[in-house]
Design a protein that fits this description.
The protein is mostly beta strands. Helix content is 7%, strand content 54%. It is built from 3 helices and 19 strands. The longest helix is centred in the N-terminal third of the chain and has 15 residues, at 2-16.
Length: 326
């Protein structure tokens, strides 16, 4: 019964407490697609990104997340000749350049619970004004939950809970919706994750319990303040919450030099200070974040570390419409 109680407590912590239900990212500004499917293809690039996060290094069973994402946009690359009348012929694009596609796979370990999954996203981009883009996105997701049996010795192998679907592996389908507003000077996004609020039956047929995933909401934004042609100060925020109203916010500011170097500092309301730094070389982007928590657990850890590595392909002139993307 002791092992059974431990597993129940850890699973409840993983599915009902916001901070552990879904991965937390400190470099969300550099891969917003992980939080919002409508970001897919919004910048006109074809991007590949790898994000690895090790939380509370030195503390056994602490969250560990690795994700690999891809996104692109169906641009106006070629034209076909169409005859609209006997005397008139016009060239029209095969694609109107408004569709974005993307996806990612991930592995998230949290205590005794391992969660792996995938997401495939479709985004539609349109223009409100000359330089303001509005995007809508929808994704289908799949999660696979499983107990990490290497971290525990089962005292009673016949326990109904330990022989449940959680021990064999539990697959949960889900979906995410997002909206994204992008301009040369600012960006704002809102998304709702785990829309289905799927539930799983944990335990035997005589004594199972239902555990449901709560919807998660993300709201982020940033604004660029230019100081000369190469220097940008970018204040930003990220607000996250579940339907249980457990809000958490990141409020920070980043200095960007010529789009080739950036450094930032942020405060997370869960009592953490976040420092970020990154560089760009040609089409290669490398970022690093260090989280220093001001909670008691910091005494037994070496902080939280996160690395983001990305490749972006596509001419800079196609990046935004105001830079003659099409």
């Amino acid at each position: 019964m002791r092992i059974r109680a431990i597993i129940l407590i850890l699973f409840l912590a993983a599915t009902n407490a916001y901070s552990q239900q879904l991965p937390v990212y400190s470099q969300y500004l550099y891969n917003k697609f992980l939080l919002n499917p409508s970001v897919a293809g919004s910048d006109g690039y074809t991007s590949f990104a790898l994000t690895a996060r090790e939380q509370w290094v030195g503390y056994k069973g602490a969250p560990r997340t690795v994700s690999f994402s891809w996104q692109t946009r169906m641009l106006k690359r070629s034209y076909i000749l169409r005859q609209t009348s006997v005397k008139r012929q016009v060239f029209r694009p095969k694609s109107d350049g408004k569709v974005g596609l993307g996806g990612y796979i991930f592995s998230d370990n949290n205590g005794l619970i391992n969660r792996t999954g995938f997401q495939f996203s479709y985004a539609y981009h349109t223009w409100l004004k000359e330089e303001t883009q509005l995007s809508f996105g929808l994704s289908v997701n799949g999660y696979h939950y499983k107990i990490d049996e290497e971290q525990v010795d089962f005292e009673d192998p016949a326990d109904p809970l330990l022989n449940s679907s959680l021990r064999r592996g539990l697959f949960v389908p889900d979906a995410t919706f997002g909206v994204y507003l992008l301009n040369a000077n600012y960006s704002f996004g809102f998304s709702a994750d785990q829309l289905f609020q799927a539930s799983g039956k944990i335990g035997g047929s005589q004594a199972y319990q239902n555990f449901s995933l709560k919807r998660q909401y993300y709201l982020f934004g940033s604004y660029d303040i230019s100081h000369g042609p190469y220097n940008i100060i970018q204040p930003s925020f990220l607000l996250t919450s579940s339907e249980q109203w457990t809000p958490m916010a990141d409020i920070g500011v980043t200095y960007i030099f010529h789009d080739d170097f950036w450094a930032g500092l942020a405060y997370r309301t869960s009592k953490a200070i976040i420092a970020t730094v990154g560089v760009k070389y040609q089409n290669i982007y490398l970022g690093y974040a260090f989280d220093f928590t001001m909670q008691e657990i910091q005494r037994v850890t070496y902080g939280t570390h996160e690395i983001n590595f990305a490749l972006k392909f596509g001419d800079n002139k196609r990046k935004y419409r105001w830079l003659d993307r099409y």
